[in-house]
Structures
1.
Amino acid sequence: MPPMIKAIPCYTYFVVTYLGILASACIGWLCTLFLLLVHKLETTLRTVHAAVLQSSESKGQPQEDIEVWLRNQKSIINFSFADASKPHDTLPIRAEANENIAIAFGLINSLTTTSPSIHKSFLKTASSIINRPDRDWTALFETATSTLKTELNHVPGQSLPLAEVTRITCLTVVLVDNFNIPSPISRQSLVIITEEINNQWLKAKSSTPHSRPAASSLLNGHLSSLNLTLRSSTHVLPPEEILSIIIPQYETLWRVVLVTYLLAFHLYPSPTLPARISSVPGCLGSNSDAEKEALKLAKEGLRLTPSNKRIYRHSPTVSDHRKAKLNADLELLHRHPSIWGPSALEFNPSRFDSLTPLQTEAYLPYSLRPHRCPAFGGFGDRMVTCLVAAMGRVLGTSGAGRVSNTNDKEGQKRQVIKTARDKLEGWRYTLCK
Ligand SMILES: *[C@@H]1O[C@H](CO)[C@@H](O)[C@H](O)[C@H]1NC(C)=O
Ligand SMILES: *[C@@H]1O[C@H](CO)[C@@H](O)[C@H](O)[C@H]1NC(C)=O
């Protein structure tokens, strides 16, 4: 017996110890689980808090916050963040941010130079082109419609690649408007020039200070062979000079024109659209009420798709190269719900019937002084309206054909157009049978 009596406490001891270990392991495990849960909860709360902070920073609810943010953005655009106002100080702040674009195209213009005298002479050329008193808008409109008709005949029965067609049309109109063109430009040349400009642009955007984009001899060769001269001169322009003049116009134009056409004629068809543009092209340049109504098409297009989504500056006082790059978010200024209301993302030219003071402050499609785009005084709005109306006239509205996007099936339903180049490339126009 005694050995058995002895064995019982021993057994009990083991069971108790085992249970003890098991229990403490369970408690430990529960504690760990509990701590993990607390940690998870804390992280979640932190994330939520950060998101709330971030959204009140950029999408801000209180009106003062929005006004502070707006002033801040404008001070980047107008160089007051760096206390600069004279070309000697402002040009380097801008040129550095545009350096790779300059190299890819061999540009020597106001956007890329640090020399006040080159800046001045470029502005003189640009303004003589833009402020030409004898511009015939009806002739430009007809250039656009005849180019579009040729494109439509070029791909009978198939669907039209809208990005390419818009690029060709915009480039043709810009070249005709800017230069003497001694002989008709072949479609093949227009395709190569527009594609190469696109390629060079992408290369410039993806390059770093260590890998600079090289100029395109294909692009330069095609531009040289056109033998273009300025209207007031017989000097045949080298490709770099042609690009310096056309890039700020053409490259900022075609995406706005394409997106505005899609929004106005397909995604937000409005019963007031035909009346709004019925006087185009005759009204263009007239400063009449009819023209003001028509130009709201361009104004609303430029609101949702400003030619530059962001305006980059290079801070002269910050030595760290990455931190020195600042930008103002023009796209957000133009779409902010606290500024534009709940319909901020909708295309509605009538909103320009009357803007609130805050909307007027935040609407900056041509940037600000001292480097406001020379196209600001009506030329840009007229050019966009002329080209968009031409597309509407030739391609018709949603009744005549339909549009779809092979690269962005969702995007075409959401009614907010993605403006990244690859997304724009997918838009097709198909005539209804
Ligand atoms: C630049 O913009 C800021 C913010 O709106 C403004 O306070 C300042 O007066 C502007 N500077 C100039 C020179 O216009
Ligand atoms: C451009 O000029 C060159 C040399 O004068 C000439 O050979 C060429 O045919 C011209 N090209 C066009 C498109 O006019």
2.
Amino acid sequence: MASATEERICFCLCLFLFLNLSTSTADYTVPAPWPKQFHSVLFLNRSGNLRKTDFWYDWPNGRIFNIFQNQLGILKYDLAWNNRTSFFYTVDPFNSTCEVLHFDVGVLPPNWLHGANYLGQQHSENFLCNVWEKDDFIWYYEDVVTRKPVKWIFHDGMITHVMTFEVGAVLDDAHWQAPVYCFSKAEAEPQQKYMRRTSYLLDFEDAVEGGFSSL
Ligand SMILES: *[C@@H]1O[C@H](CO)[C@@H](O)[C@H](O)[C@H]1NC(C)=O
Ligand SMILES: *[C@@H]1O[C@H](CO)[C@@H](O)[C@H](O)[C@H]1NC(C)=O
Ligand SMILES: *[C@@H]1O[C@H](CO)[C@@H](O)[C@H](O)[C@H]1NC(C)=O
């Protein structure tokens, strides 16, 4: 009787120690998965062309939103659905334009960095970061302390600085509605384009006319 209780206590203790150990020795050589929903303000720099982006990531609803402005340029909206349709538009006070684009990739899953190659730690932008390289196209820097992304760099040199990272922030449904002229235009003219969105939706401007460098 006593030994059964002892065994049980021992088992519980062992389980506790095991669980405790396995969480406290979480694998820091793997990037933290992205939260299912977040909002980030990003600053991008491609060869001195600067862009500010409001980035809304909404995996449960299968959508992401890039609201971005090149330096002294116009405000642009890129609303991408997991079915690979993107609405790329401008609104008042700028001209009302819209392009409906089809891409060959959908929204990045939260674990998109899975399998990245760990490169060790580096000091970057005042943070001590764990650094990974993924598929020969991106370097990814994550703050060692908070495990939030600090920046990522594409191999073509474009660098994205993460200025805010609001875990769980969700943009209201009403804001995910593309303007009506997106739909009328798509019907009136067979202007839907099939594009290749490079680098998993994080770097789409090469695919889009009037993108990064032209404004
Ligand atoms: C942007 O990147 C270029 C290198 O491509 C660098 O010379 C420049 O200082 C950067 N500008 C800013 C504001 O980070
Ligand atoms: C993808 O989803 C969006 C939002 O529901 C919709 O407007 C669009 O027509 C869909 N695209 C396709 C090809 O079904
Ligand atoms: C808006 O449209 C007008 C008329 O087509 C054009 O002249 C003007 O350059 C456009 N402005 C922008 C910012 O695209």
3.
Amino acid sequence: MSVYILLFFLLRFSAAKDDCTPTRCSHHGPTIRFPFRLKNHHPPHCGYPGFDLSCSPNTTSATTILHLPVSVKVLVNDIDYKSQLIHIKDPNSCFPQQLRNLNLSAAPFIAPFPQDLPNPNLSGSFVGNFSVFSCPSTPPDWERISERVTCLSGHGREVYAVNHMWDTYEAPMMRCRKMYNVWSVPYEAFYQTADLQLRWPLAVCRGCEAEGKFCRLSQLARALWVVIGLESSDEVDSC
Ligand SMILES: *[C@@H]1O[C@H](CO)[C@@H](O)[C@H](O)[C@H]1NC(C)=O
Ligand SMILES: *[C@@H]1O[C@H](CO)[C@@H](O)[C@H](O)[C@H]1NC(C)=O
Ligand SMILES: *[C@@H]1O[C@H](CO)[C@@H](O)[C@H](O)[C@H]1NC(C)=O
Ligand SMILES: *[C@@H]1O[C@H](CO)[C@@H](O)[C@H](O)[C@H]1NC(C)=O
């Protein structure tokens, strides 16, 4: 009898310690599971470093929040686990305001070129390095080579993002003042209503998701476990 009681407690204990059950911030929010985890809800081994999500404190309509290096806070609209894409937007509908602080090379995400996407039906982005200028008026000929940053323009200044692939991008034109550089972001980041997609290029688990299997980290070694069901702890070598 006591053996059964001991077994019961052992099973309960291990179940409680391994609680990586998928969750979400609100009814309409994206499911949060490996390689993501919900901070303060899932233990660290439920996700990879850099994949921590949190919920906004708004309890009536909680949104899902991702922090990107260095200090960029974005809302998560959708997570496509099969294609390894995360759809983000700026909480104030003005990404350019935050781009100055964005360093994607310190994050586990990339802005995907079309050729980086696993499915040709997904639309990729034209990724580039940009200089952002503040000008008293529209410099001649800049329509062709620049994106007007609507949400930063106004009050007598026009803000433009110029791709570094243009030779003239550093030219001090029309009393324009260079504000900052932005590295490796897609053009859409400068549009007002940007829904940006980022990809996590972790090779890990990709084949498994395509087969309808799931992954998580083992608690001890932080090695990868492939599990057939989210509740299952059966270890499988590969997909
Ligand atoms: C909470 O969400 C509701 C619905 O989206 C919104 O009207 C309200 O302003 C939000 N409250 C805060 C404190 O953000
Ligand atoms: C971005 O992050 C990478 C990796 O942490 C670092 O090497 C690089 O200097 C950073 N770039 C900028 C512009 O801060
Ligand atoms: C791409 O879209 C077409 C038409 O909607 C569909 O038939 C095809 O299966 C899709 N390809 C993939 C890889 O999803
Ligand atoms: C942007 O700049 C980085 C660092 O200088 C470079 O490695 C990268 O290739 C550039 N990207 C493009 C699209 O030019």
